[in-house]
Design goal:
Largest sheet: 6 strands, antiparallel
Keywords: ATP-binding, Nucleotide-binding
Bound molecules: adenosine-5'-triphosphate
Radius of gyration: 27 Å
Pfam family, one: Pkinase
Protein name: Protein kinase domain-containing protein
InterPro entries: CK1_Ser-Thr_kinase, Kinase-like_dom_sf, Prot_kinase_dom, Protein_kinase_ATP_BS
Oligomer: single chain
Strand content: 5-15%
Number of helices: 19
Length: 586
């Protein structure tokens, strides 16, 4: 069953697949010398507890995950804590490791997430003063993370939490499970851009349009765009348009969400809001892949906006928000109502009122919306309701087709694109598993056949160097990644397009003869030896990546169904033939 995160129950976060074959035992009362107390949250791969050290009595947040979880985010997260220690609003890592079957991280105990504070307030929108504080602080946190060569990649309200007193006005960033180095630690260079489409990593609501809808490689600009979307969301009644129907439960619903997100224009999303928000969103989208954002400029813009609008204080996030001061606002009331007018240099209030009245009289046609005309709000609400009805229909009609893929907001395959640092496996992983999972990651990044060929050769080497030639979960992970790359036409610079007659729905153990036609059921041998021997003999004749993909799938499938799951002599010969053929097709 998909495992639901605490956050997803009500709003933003995700679902993930979990391996049904693994029975997760109950959490122990004591772990790594900590008494486990109240559960603070459950997430993608585990749970977080308030925990007290049995000797020092120090209270921490213990993030606990079962080591057999297929996507152990602690494994990635622990690599990044050392890079951010000492930064303002960065949690301190006190201890980490594996005890028994539990992987744990002991971090600073913090307060509530912005998501939870906002939901509990019961308000439709957050007050502008608080949103400006969030803007200033989160942009500064990202500036710090980026200065350490790290992207967050999962900006959302649930991952911004306030500290405990006396740090309760400070926003902390948490959850670095999807973070990634964008500066190579060895060359000190920015990671390269790529035209190949990638599975997205992040969350449905706030991940940038480029990364989520266009499959682009994330960089600093995308973290910032996520902040912009999060701020606009907080100021919009019922939130951003694509967040209104909950987590998509099918591929079709996800596609619809992406289309809505992609087509939403900044001016529509920000109608009625101070211009800074639209400008910030546009700015983020204009940034180039390698650009360094002007963090300081935007922090100052939001500081100024907060002050101008009569909200007390500066960056500090005070919750619940204090009364807005009844001081005369710098921005004239009419300009504030118009919202999208520039903060400074506008005409005096009287002139402005006249201009707006004249504008209203203009014949702009029925469909043209006028800035600040509140009648549009009604229409917008009507449209949104209509939209909601339509897409609810789409979601409902699709729920019957829901696949495990459709329930994910976070891509579980591609999150392994961080290679981890160094060649030392985490303590709970064997060297073989570690090498295989690294190879799987590399394969999913490969963009031509030659690289795939070398990865297959390395795979053979790892499998042969081990006393056990059993294809484990990580070995299958490699084959899955390879299959996916071979079938994805976007991945290849050179993609020999030779179609086989195989139908899409053909079962995994069906095979082809050398002419590319499907073998009959009678011809087909279910015995592993027979199938693998045939694959071995046919691989040299495969003339396309698609055909090779089918063979990889058949090989994985037949090995999976065999009792020993070992790679036989024929199996190795098939893999060697595969590497050779990939070279030939490169
Ligand atoms: N240090 C902390 N102190 C207090 N509460 C925390 C802390 N870290 C997390 N939480 C709570 O737990 C929730 C989930 O945390 P987090 O996002 O780190 O876990 P997750 O979603 O399981 O992460 P992952 O995606 O890496 O599996 C947070 O929204 C927050 O409410």
């Amino acid at each position: 069953m998909p495992q639901e995160s605490a956050l997803s129950q009500e709003s933003y976060d995700s679902y993930s697949e979990s391996d049904e074959s693994i029975i997760i035992p109950p959490f122990p009362p004591v772990l790594a010398n900590h008494w486990l107390g109240e559960k603070l949250g459950s997430g993608y791969s585990g749970s977080i507890f308030r925990a007290t050290h049995i000797h020092t009595h120090q209270t921490v947040a213990l993030k606990v995950q079962h080591i057999s979880h297929e996507n152990l985010t602690n494994r990635y997260e622990r690599n990044f804590y050392p890079m951010i220690q000492g930064g303002v609003g960065m949690p301190k890592l006190w201890a980490q490791g594996v005890e028994g079957c539990w992987d744990y991280l002991a971090i600073d105990l913090l307060g509530s997430s912005l998501d939870s504070l906002f939901r509990k307030s019961g308000k439709e929108t957050m007050d502008l003063g608080s949103v400006c504080s969030i803007a200033m602080q989160v942009i500064s946190r990202l500036e710090f993370m980026h200065s350490r060569g790290l992207l967050h990649r999962d900006i959302q309200l649930g991952n911004c939490v306030v500290g405990l007193p006396p740090n309760d006005k400070l926003i902390y960033m948490i959850d670095f499970g999807f973070s990634k180095r964008y500066i190579d630690p060895y060359t000190h260079r920015h990671i390269p851009d790529s035209k190949a489409k990638r599975d997205f990593i992040g969350n449905y609501w706030f991940t940038s349009v480029g990364v989520h809808c266009r499959g682009k490689v994330p960089s600093r600009r995308d973290d910032l765009e996520a902040v912009a979307l999060m701020l606009i969301h907080l100021l919009t009644p019922r939130g951003l348009p694509w967040t209104r129907h909950g987590v998509p439960k099918s591929d079709d619903a996800h596609d619809l969400l992406k289309r809505t997100k992609k087509s939403a224009r900044p001016e529509d999303l920000c109608r009625g809001l101070p211009s800074e928000f639209e400008e910030f969103l546009r700015y983020c989208r204009r940034l180039k892949f390698y650009d360094q954002p002007e963090y300081g400029k935007w922090v100052e813009e939001f500081r100024e906006l907060k002050k101008e609008q009569g909200y007390p204080g500066g960056e500090e996030f005070v919750w619940p928000p204090p009364e807005r001061a009844k001081v005369r606002m710098v921005r004239p009331p009419a300009a504030a109502a118009a919202g999208t007018l520039r903060r400074s240099g506008g005409p005096p209030p009287e002139d402005l009122r006249r201009i707006l009245d004249d504008l209203k009289k203009l014949e702009l046609g029925d469909n043209r919306q006028i800035l600040g005309d509140r009648s549009n709000v009604k229409e917008a609400v009507r449209n949104a309701q209509e939209d909601a009805r339509r897409s609810r229909g789409a979601v409902e009609s699709n729920t019957t087709q829901t696949t495990d893929k459709g329930t994910r907001s976070r891509t579980t395959t591609a999150d392994t694109d961080d290679d981890g640092d160094g060649d030392i496996p985490p303590p709970f992983m064997t060297m073989k598993a570690y090498k295989l999972s690294k190879l799987a990651t590399q394969v999913s990044k490969a963009t031509d056949n030659r690289v795939l060929a070398t990865k297959v050769t390395e795979f053979i080497k790892v499998m042969k160097s081990n006393t056990s030639r059993t294809l484990t979960k990580d070995g299958f992970g490699f084959l899955d990644a390879l299959y996916k790359q071979l079938t994805d036409p976007d991945v290849f610079v050179i993609a020999p397009p030779m179609r086989t007659s195989r139908s899409k729905g053909a079962s995994a153990d069906e095979s082809h003869n050398t002419n590319g036609t499907r073998t009959s059921d009678r011809e087909r041998s279910n015995a592993k030896l027979g199938v693998v021997a045939r694959l071995r003999s046919e691989v040299g004749d495969a003339k396309s990546n698609k055909r090779l993909a089918d063979m990889v799938r058949d090989f994985g499938s037949v090995t999976n169904r065999s009792t020993g799951r070992t790679i036989t002599k024929d199996g190795f010969a098939f893999l060697e033939g595969l590497a050779k053929q990939l070279e030939a097709l490169a």
